[in-house]
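HOLO CASE FILE
Compound: thiamine diphosphate
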Amino acid sequence: MSPQERVTFHFTRESIVRDYRIAYQSRQASLLGRKEVLTGKAKFGIFGDGKEVAQVALARAFRKGDFRSGYYRDQTLMFALGLLRIDEFFAQLYADSEPDRDPSSGGRQMNSHFATRLLTDDGNWKPLTDSFNSTADLSPTGAQMPRLVGLAFASRLYRHLEGLDHLSGFSKHGDEIAFGTIGDASCAEGVFWESVNAAGALKAPMLLSIWDDGYGISVPTEFHITKGHLSSILRGFQRAPGDDEGFDLYTVKGWDYPALCETYLNAAEVVRREHVPAIVHVAELTQPQGHSTSGSHERYKSEERLGWERDHDCLVRMREWMIEEKIAPHEELSRFEEEDRQLVEELQRRAWESCRRPVEDEKRVLIQLTSELAEASAHEAQIEGVLKRLGRLANPHRRDLLGAAQESLIHTRTEKSQIRDQLVEWRDEMEEAGYQRYGSYLHSESEASALTVEVVEAQFSDSSPLVNGFEVLNRCFDEALGRYPNLVAFGEDVGQLGDVNQGFMGLQEKYGDLRVSDTGIREATILGQAIGMALRGLRPLAEIQYLDYVLYALQIMSDDLATLHWRTRGGQKAPVIVRTRGHRLEGIWHSGSMISGILNLVRGMHVCVPRNMVQAAGMFNTLLRSDDPALLIEVLNGYRLKERLPDNIGEFTVPLGRPEVLREGRDVTLVTYGACCRLAIEAAEMLTQVGIDLEVIDVQTLDPFDLEGRVRASLEKTNRIVFLDEDVPGGTTAYMMQKVLEVQGGFDWLDAPPRTLSAQAHRPAYGSDGDYFSKPNREQIFSTVYDLMHHSDPARFPSLGT
Ligand SMILES: Cc1ncc(C[n+]2csc(CCOP(=O)(O)OP(=O)(O)O)c2C)c(N)n1
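Model generated. Tokens follow.
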């Protein structure tokens, strides 16, 4: 069926009234939500008013197993699908941190950032074909788009790939649609166009709705979009009749309920059956309360526009239509509206009380303890003052309680009493609970955590061949593709060529072009493709061709992938392995090692920096057995270096967070990773000639970092330490230093100032000398270590003349 062959649908009166009531309740929730913010009970509010009718229509096309990847205007869709209750909507507005009351995020996300719980409490997947599913929203405009590509493309794989029958909880023959939503102004983002193009090229069954209310906050559409009209500029993506390349495009007015229902049901039918993506441009939407609680739209909308918005309010229009069509008379609708208004108020009240109750209980305990402390203290008046100030707060938060406890403890710091000890204990427990409440689930806490994967040593025998580094990876990937039928590898040049360094050479031929595939040059959506696929039970191994180009994918990696498990409080996971190569080659954009910039933005992912391809293979094997997302950076100049191939290439694992001592020494500990390991070993050989015994440690993974304190153990022996890498000064060397000196307590073992040796602050220059004077070199390592020894024992190690 093409969009030209539309089918008209007939709905029961009851179901239409139900749609109206959901839309009406949703509007009431928006109105009341805004009030709650303006009266100070919540911090910020952003609501879906003006978009209700389109969303109840869209909900009619949603089927079990389908996914949503949307944004903060979608509350009505969530209500209509039964994925969000009104009390839960308010719980999130109040930042209620109880996950049963805010299942989307457990108080971690601001209001209208929705998610369903895809995982059981122990971190395993629920059967997703039994439910409507929503991925977890993000605030950066357009950031929902890359993931949408992968969510949709997964259906294509489930329809066409052999060997996925055991994953029946994720798909029924690839019949699932990924529904996306985005605002009109956000369509100006680069990731929007990259995602639309990628979905078209991949023939991914996505159905994207653009909610067009004519503004991005205060800026009207013509400033965002060429010609000021999305439908016209999207036309180039439209497929020709009978063709299966391209999109189906629909434009429909956001207040026209029957047209919206018909459009969505027709569009979804085609997307589902033919796997042809579609875009529904929903025009003429309004925003009755303005963008958010941060400002008022009267400041930037003309009187004329405000009047137009009142006339075209989708609820007003749907109501008129229902009366005209004799679906329900005015009186009946008024009665429902009154009932629904009261219902929303009642649910809001309950949400507020539930949110406040635990804090009020804690406040009572604190007041009891503090009052008793005051009675027993010489500082009674000051503590009473603290209590009075606390009493004046209408709705204190936990931070106010902890502040009051701390103040009381400071006043009584010279006193000893049992009641004071009790207050200390109360404060400690409150702090512990608070950090747990907001800090858990940064990484997997399931039995598949990467940190609990069994260690299997690499086995070598007399017949273990010496091969090129890339051949080690090639064998590893071959074994992995054979073992895991849901493993899919993709990236630029990964398919036919087998990647630019032949890691996948011959594997597309062996496993097919859906398992090992080429992508366009589109790093953000390579990442998004991986996230979406991982959310649907596949195991993506996504390649970013060079570390330097990770920056194009970094926003999605940082905002979406790295935060996903945490921001849903363990409700969702995306076990994506991102593979890239970096450190040393040639020039600014092929030898970057900007690790700290990445490392510090992807907390929530593991970051592996193997020194060679055998270690890399072992880390891949570990990650494939786990459900944590990770970034693995191979050493760019290591593919042609010879390594011995382990006999158990498909089975051995390298544990994360366990450094390896590459060379034992007693004088100085040198801590490094990746390509610098080779350089450090070379420098160590030079140092032996002057009687300095360098211990070289490869940390192997930066996150997690040395879980057993192996670096500190080395420092206890040598009492001198150098941190070495190719990042900028104060980059990852500083990161490692903080871990060792502060976290591991290494400071106490130092006999000399700690040193860092990194690349220069500028980017790496081209050519051999460019490299030598940009990156740390053997001579610098020698001098740095020698200098430490010179300061310890100038007689034995006289100045080199520097
Ligand atoms: C990357 C990014 N830039 C800026 C913002 C601030 N911002 C939040 S919403 C918004 C306007 C979005 O307009 P539109 O896409 O039309 O959606 P609407 O809010 O109108 O539904 C802006 C600029 C943001 N959240 N993310």
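CASE NOTES: Residues 330-376 form the longest helix (47 residues). The chain has 25 helices and 22 strands.
CLOSED: yes
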